[in-house]
Each structure stands twice: as structure tokens, then as C-alpha cells.
Amino acid sequence: MTEAVIIGLHPRPGKFSELTALVQQMVKEVRRHAGCLQADILLAPDRDEISVFQRWQNPEAFSEYLIWRSKQDHLDRVYELSAAEPDLSSFTLCEPG
Questions:
Q1: What class has domain 3-86?
Q2: Helices 74-81 and 16-32, interaxial angle, to 10°?
Q3: In what order do the strands lie in the sheet with 36-44?
Q4: What is the pLDDT along the chain (97 residues), one digit of tens a residue?
Q5: Taking Cα atoms as reference points, which of 42, 38, 22 lies closest to residue 30?
């Protein structure tokens, strides 16, 4: 079953643009990862919010991605630029019909 993931980020004051640029780079990598069907960035600069929406072929593909991502340097930089822990929610997509 297809897995949908929403990651919410809250940049430190004055770090919105820097975190956005980093997330854009990371999303390019996500899109090339096996099992990724979609990865998009959602920006709300007036609320200092950045979200990433991802769709994966299945929960296993997302799990494999998380293991890979945890070993990358970018994740440490995300934490440095964020005011709080990223919010991560995953859902099994309910297909119509």
C-alpha cells in the first residue's frame, strides 16, 4: 500500500531561507531514492513553516529511505536550523473505491 509522509519544520528566527534551500537540496535527493513516488515542498513564510509531502510505493521503501537519510550530514544541519524537532507523520493512503 502507498505510504504518504508529511514532515513539518519550524526554522529558527532568521533561518527560513537557509532551511528552505537545504530542504530543496534534500528533496532532490529524495526524488531519486528507490520507491519515492513524489516529494514536494510546501512553504508558508508568513508562519515560518516548511513542510515536505512525500509519497512512497510502500512503508518498506520509506523505512529504507529513513535508514539512508539518518546517515547523511544534511540531517544534522536541519536540526541546527530548526527551532523544534521536525514533526513527522506517515499515513497509509486510502485509494478511492
A1: alpha beta
A2: 150
A3: 36-44, 49-56, 3-9, 87-92
A4: 899 999 999 999 999 999 999 999 999 999 999 999 999 999 999 999 999 999 999 999 999 999 999 998 899 999 999 999 999 999 999 877 7
A5: 38
